[in-house]
Amino acid sequence: MNHTEASMDALRQTGDELADATVAALFESGQVGTFNTLMRYVSTVGSALPDGLPDVAREYLEATRVPPPWVDWSEMEKARLFFIDNNVHISTALSFASMPACYIVPHVAKLLSATHGLNYPSKRMAETGQFTVFLMQPDAFEAGSRFIPAAQKVRLLHASIRHHLKRENRWDAAALGVPICQEDMIGGQMFFSMLVLDSLHRLGIHMTQEGAEAYYYAWRVVGAMLGVDQDAVPKTLDEARQFLDLYMIRHMGPSDEGAHLTRQLIDLYEEVVPGTFFDPIVSALIRYLVGDTCADWLDVPHTPWDTVVKAVPHLLGVLETLEDRSPLSAWALDRIGHLTSVLELSSLTRGRVMHYAIPEQLKKDYGVSNAVPRTRRWTPPAATVS
């Protein structure tokens, strides 16, 4: 479907009825602490729900424990293989494009600063990276998987943020709509899917049309499990381009929270990068992927690496060509990519499993398969607005 200003405005008035009702009932009965404590023991698919779990929470978990019935599992397998083939590049795109894109939307940056803190971006980055890794495991929807419980908890986390902001009158719903509304949830889905694909293309990564479509499809499944209205979600990459362009034109701009969160993100990754010589590449890569206008809004500093980083697509293009032509090179590069991603995630999580809990209060200071020919390259849909 093609979205309009009117249809986007309508999406701003809706949250997630099931999760919102569950969270409201937990707060009303004073059982949030009990729920969070017990849910630390529910981390894998097939785990028995613990005794003492509030009835409303048990009903929610039972209702959301399986993926939507329309899932095409062959398409999900293509998405998993696409992730294996491009895991380090996807991690790069998530870190240096998708996360900064969230900060370019002022009301989203304000939400993030209220719930995660301006000084602790590592928590959100660790949770995002871990969530993606859980999704792309071969047994993501089977017994023993950590993905579905993580999705169930993230959905309640979003509902709790809506609950706090509305209850405490700390959100101008008349001007901004419902906090973490359907428009913003779909926008976030676009940041982690369409924008990632755009970034891979900009980096010179070789992708097939089948791989790009499968990766986007996987995030449609994720959106469904996070309470996104599937009647409103773009079904194709062309529709996704139209939605993302319109969403960004409607909302993107500078904000103090966005600039502060970006500064903390840069500092975080400069700590991950060994030594100090390569530190400026963090800022340069963000600027390259989000563009100068958005980078200026986020106060991303200019560095001598701004010019150097433009050579990255050429270097990656050489490596991608080697991967296309040699199965051994493809295997070696995939292993290096996997190890790099594991090292990055372990640095952020410090080797721990991240737990998603319902916050009892907000911050006080809130203001594709190798069998598919890789020569059939994906070309991003053209921009729909100027």
From TrEMBL:
Q: Which PANTHER family match?
A: ER-BOUND OXYGENASE MPAB_MPAB'_RUBBER OXYGENASE CATALYTIC DOMAIN-CONTAINING PROTEIN, SECRETED PROTEIN-RELATED
Instruction: Return the InterPro entries for the record.
Output: Lcp-like (IPR037473), MPAB/Lcp_cat_dom (IPR018713)
Highest taxon of the source?
Answer: Bacteria
> What is the designated name of this protein?
DUF2236 domain-containing protein
Record organism: Streptomyces spectabilis
Q: Which residues form the ER-bound oxygenase mpaB/mpaB'/Rubber oxygenase catalytic domain?
A: 120-308
Q: Name one GO molecular function term.
A: oxidoreductase activity
